[in-house]
Amino acid sequence: MDMVLYDWTPDVRCYAVRLGLSLMGVEYRTVTVDMDLPAARDLAALAGGAPLPVLECGGQYLSRPGNILHFIARQPAVARAWLDPACEWAILDWLDFGACALDTLAASREGALGTTEPVAPATGALDAALRRMEDHMSARALEGYDWFAAPAASIADVALFVVFALSADVGVERDTCPALRRWARRVRALPDFAVMPGVPDYA
Question: Is the same domain home to 90 and 180?
Fold first, then answer.
C-alpha cells in the first residue's frame, strides 16, 4: 500500500515517524512541507487541519505521531514485535506518554531554536518526563529487560528515544540518566536506524 508522509525535517514529531518507518522497514514517499513558509501551511492542513506529521495511506490521512506509529505497526508486513500482542497495553501506554512528551519537546525547541529572538525554555516538564523514564528503565534493567514495554524494541521505544535524544537541545540534564543512555545506545544499534541532525552519537 502506497504511503506518503507529509514531513517537516526539523520537527521532532516528524522525526519520530520517519524513525519508526525506517526501523519497521516500511517504504514510503515524502512530501516536504516547509513550515517556515506561510503558504506551506495550506498544504499541511490535512486530516481536519492537523499539524504535521500527516501520513496519507489508501485515501486516508492520519495525524499525530502516536497514531501513525500505531497504524504502521499494524501493517501485515511489519514484525509483530513492534506491537507485541502480549504487551500491547503497556506499549500503548508508553507510546501515549511519549507522544505527549514529544509535544512538550517540540514547543520547547521552537522557543529555543525556532525564533528570531530565542528564549530559554522552561524544562520542568521534560525533566520530570526523563526522571520517570529513567526510573522505569532502571527498574526494567533489574528485571532483566532492555526495552520500555516489551521483550524487544516496540513503537513506544521509537517515540521515547526522540524525546530523550533531542532533549539536550533545550538544555535538559541527561548525565543523571545512565539507564536511558544505555537504552538509547541500543536503539541507535537497531538495523535501519535513521539519524536526524541534532541526535548526538552519545545519546
Answer: yes
Non-local (6+) Cβ contacts of 156 within 8 A are 90, 91, 92, 93, 94, 95, 97, 98, 148, 149, 150
Note the pLDDT tens digit of each residue in 34-87.
Answer: 655 554 445 545 545 567 899 999 888 898 999 999 999 999 999 999 999 999
CB atoms inside a 10 Å sphere around CB 72: 24
What pTM was computed for the model?
A: 0.88
Domain membership of residue 26 as a residue range: 3-80
80, 98, 123 - which closes a domain:
80
Burial 161-174 (b: 16+ CB within 10 A, else e): bbbbbbbebbebeb
